[in-house]
Amino acid sequence: MTGVRERGDRSWANACPDERAWRGRRGRGRRALAAEQDRAAGGVDRRWVDLGDGRQARASVALKLLPRTRRIRAYLRWSDRGRSPTRYLGEVGYTTRARNLAEGWRLAHEKGLIAPLAPAPGSWASSRAVRSSMQANKGRDTTPERRLRSALHKLGLRYRVNLRPLPGVRRTADVVFPGPRIAVFVDGCYWHGCPEHYRPARANQQFWHAKIDGNKARDAETDRLLLAAGWVSIRVWEHETPQLAADRVVAAVRGTEVCDPQINRSP
What is the pLDDT of residue 10? Predict the structure, then answer.
């Protein structure tokens, strides 16, 4: 299965998974359902699909149990002019609906089905939707950050969060190990120009191209400043599996591998 079951989970070989793994709580309104999808996707701005012709639609991940195979499947759904297109994402295998929804969204991004919400022509945020999207983009404690911190904690590491490693330099790392001088940054695929998942905006391209290039230049400068001060900079893409990223960080902290402090990023 694509989803990796949590430690201690009971195998589904002889019994169907508990309803909490896939069925939502009954009686919830549309606002609560939308908030659930926003949390699982990592923000309202990470739920959009490109319909072509400059149109976009907000998507949702649906979970469906196949009783015969005792498998849970995730699907991406959205509305387009009265139709309801559906794309199969893959099988998920966590014991909670929240984890399975998040895994579904991860698969949707991995398959390139999600596009950034395009700004209105002529302005970076001239529409209410874009302003809402920008305001919803959290600068700290994002879902990928929390997952990485949880994985690190389970591996026995203790750390500080949202700290500026260098006094007088306005650069904040997401996870910091002051002793071994290691700073970890969890970079969003869109905002930091992930070579695998970044999709340029269709409108106001000049502004957004300069914005993303500026972010990448700032990242490189941050790494150089840290290196000059004797720090190791580890950069983790938001699409990376938390456990694999945590293994990289643990290896650096415990000195079991020689890290490249300037790059040190998985593809």
Answer: 41
